[in-house]
Amino acid sequence: MPDTDPVRVAALADIHAREGNEREIRDLFGQIGTEADVLVLAGDLTGRGQAAEAEILADIIRSQRLPVVGVLGNHDYESDQVDQVKTVLCDAGMHLLDDEPHEIHGVGFAGVKGFYGGFGSHVLAPFGEPLVKRFVHETIDEGLRLESGLHRLRSAHRVAVLHYAPIRETVVGEPEEIFPFLGSSRLEEPIDRFEATVAVHGHAHHGAPEGRTAHGVPVYNVAYPLLQTLTPERPYRILTLSAPDVAIKPESEQSRRTA
Ligand SMILES: [Fe+2]
Ligand SMILES: [Fe+2]
After folding, report:
1. How far is the CA of 44 from the centre of ligand 1 (A)?
2. Which of 35, 93, 116, 254 is the most buried (most CB within 10 A)?
3. Span 107-123, pLDDT tens digits
């Protein structure tokens, strides 16, 4: 496509492919294919992280035309088959961002699964037991890997892709007791420092559809169960990224409907 054409990025998370929902996902991808140039999948691609479930998604990816990029989610680790899951998806042509950022049609994508630990002044600190320190360092490491990916991109637009939420605003709607398990502000820092154009995430199936980082970067929760509830006829987010310096045209019909 010509460099001057806007790039339409479809974003979606938490499709949880498994026996029983193949037709639903296939139809969904077919609909997205009529509206987008790229598909971003923000984790929880499978139901329980089984290679056989990844095969279901891989077949669907192979049968459609869109380039697919994304990250894994916590569910994709459940069955200890994460290497097989990655191999199956990569063989189908999906570009996993955990290892390296990727550019499509002049738009850069950097991503990690992320991890949790809470938000703002209540973020978990690396203090006390070694286990707590390891836990916090896992989140810090994920943030550093996202930072490295964003840093390596030279494109005008940089899309940050996460499974866990980088801000509190987009998990509101979930029980407040589990907010610390849905994401971490430590993931917000690289998005702001490297001035990402936009960030997308999933995991908070009952959160809120959009928010902003401290520096004003738009953040979209694209969890499929959430968007099915809010916009059932269009349960995904389309971001239109225009060259060279227009940010995004996000306030689509979806935003107005959820206001
Ligand atoms: Fe999920
Ligand atoms: Fe998840």
Report:
1. 5
2. 116
3. 999 999 999 999 999 99
